[in-house]
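Researcher: Here's the sequence for the chain we discussed earlier.
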Amino acid sequence: MKFRILLLSLLAVMLSTSTLFAGQADDFKIDKQKVQDEFADLTRLEQTVADHNYLTLSELKEDSMLSAEFASMNLSSSMMMESALGIPGFWWGCIFGPIGILIVYLVTDNDRAEVKSAFTGCIVGTAVSAVFYLIYYLAWAAAI
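Model: Thanks. This is the structure I predict for it:
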């Protein structure tokens, strides 16, 4: 009896996963024309930089070589720098605590803004955990 239930469960899992993956088959099709259209502005900007030997964004803005959309973007140095492995420092600190702060410190080469953000995340994560456990303890104590 147990063997039949096990076989029926395995069959149900196999059928449910096969229909799940079959429905997502269209997600992996790439429309090359759509990709080229999306990168057309970037290609033009790259060609302008190569033709005129521009080195910085400020040089492009001075000569009005950027489109209005690019020129209106306010790119600060903190936005240009990469965070640790693509994850903001706040979340490293919030989820991993002191280890997350250490990872941010080592990966970003002591970027003060990211380390401070990781430290803030660590404090917030610790406070949220403390409140959660306090509520859990009070609920447990009230149940007794």
